[in-house]
Amino acid sequence: MLNLFNRDKNLSMLDDANATTTFEFTQSPVECYKLRFVAIYCILLLTLSVSFNSMLVIVFVKYKELRTPLNTFIIAITVCNLCSSCVELPFVITSNLNCGWTFGKSGCILSGFIMYFSGCASIYLMVAISIERFYILYKPLSIREMNSQVSVFAILFCLLNGLLWALFPIFGW
User: Minimal CA–CA distance to 132: which of 159, 112, 106, 150?
Assistant: First the structure.
């Protein structure tokens, strides 16, 4: 118990000393072996995410009959998840393996922006998919046939809306 108290006291003194400096390297208060376990889990997650999302994109590219306007939402969410996995998870893995944040303030801002944008865009794309599925189930005979222009417009609207909400924290809101 005394060791834990001294560790917290040392961390608070370290925080006071580094309050005016840039955060080049921020040591985590969590033990390193726990962070390395999380890093191993994230490596597994990265491997599975990249492989499965890549397979799905390859299937949509290879078979043109699957490229319907309704499936473009699925393609968009797959590409969004693939890009966010390839860009964001290396930040998480590297930081957990080093037992602290190693990318500085700009890396922190970039990492937060990428995660927030991909999260918001994925949520808005899932909302668009659910609205489309609702109208198919609720009024199957009265719904107009969705064309590719409408689906591309809806996807762009979802991505721009996610970008808008991800940019607000960068500008201080």
Answer: 150
Radius of gyration for the chain, computed over Cα atoms and rounded to the nearest angstrom? 22
Burial of 95 (0-12, 13-18, 19+ CB in 10 A): buried
pTM, 2 dp: 0.77
Q: What H or E segment, with its residue span, contains residue 27?
A: strand 26-27
Which residue do the tokens 């607000």 mark? 168
Task: State residue 19's pLDDT score.
Answer: 46
* Helix 104-138, helix 148-170: angle, nearest 10: 150
Tokens (6 digits) for 94: 């590297």
Distance CA 37, CA 41 (A): 6
Q: Which residue is associated with the tokens 């996807």?
A: 155
Return the higher-pLDDT residue of 154 and 10: 154
- Between CA 8 and CA 11 the distance in angstroms is 5
68-76 CB contacts, 8 Å cutoff, 24+ apart: 69/146, 69/147, 69/148, 69/150, 69/151, 70/132, 70/146, 70/151, 72/148, 72/151, 72/152, 72/155, 73/125, 73/128, 73/129, 73/132, 73/151, 73/154, 73/155, 74/129, 76/125, 76/155, 76/158, 76/159
Q: Judging by beta carbons within 10 Å of its beta carbon (0-12, 13-18, 19+), is residue 156 exposed, middle or buried?
A: exposed
